[in-house]
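Recap quiz, item 2
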Amino acid sequence: MGASAGAGAGLSARDLLAGWSPGGRGGAHARIGALLARAAPDAAARAALGGESLGARNQRLVRLHRALFARPLEARLDCACGQEVEATLPEAAILAAPTPGPGAEVAIDIAGRALRFRIPRMADLALGADPARLAAACCLAPPAPPLSPDAAAALGAAFEAADPAGDIRLSGACPECGAPLSAAADPAALLAAELDRLHAALLGQVDCIARAYGWSEAQILALPAARRRSYIALIQAREAVGRGSRAWA
Ligand SMILES: [Zn+2]
């Protein structure tokens, strides 16, 4: 990996090293949410993060990944025949999808009553994905009645229709056996795995440069990513020469 992160979408290498907990507790959304909140410029921006719908968050994560890594997000589809197929997320479609405005709502029929719900926000989703809990949090005329499995499915479908970028599906065909493949893709999980690798790469860069020059972590992280790579290339070239001369001694 190029460890290209210098700054990306308002997230600096320093934010990443200080704010990302590799393999940390909590799901990918919670870990990324904590990182975004830490990097938010002010309280209003932090509050806005909690008010985002899942689709708006997915769009933010697609843009963030693009800014950090300069390539599209990729997911892996597993075929029953054992073949693994790489699939690129349809980023243009995700970014073009409409997102629900702050007052957006959906209505579903439960036992002859039309019940209205606002679209779930990230702050709601932080409570867990349990449909009953989500329905209770989003019902505009609480308390929400108990949802039958059919009503819960109808509510989930209404939420997805109102916030299409919140439900990303990949499809394709297995190149080995031709079977059709389809799976849900979660940009948060995919990005979290890449941030784990980037965090490790940044630590390695700081370690390498600090040992060679004695600079502080803050000084090293303030360097543009390309300059960090240049210094590391110089250090490695010098070490290679050192190894060569020792071999001749
Ligand atoms: Zn297959």
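The CA atoms of residues 173 and 180 lie 4 Å apart.
Residues 105-162 form one domain.
End of item.
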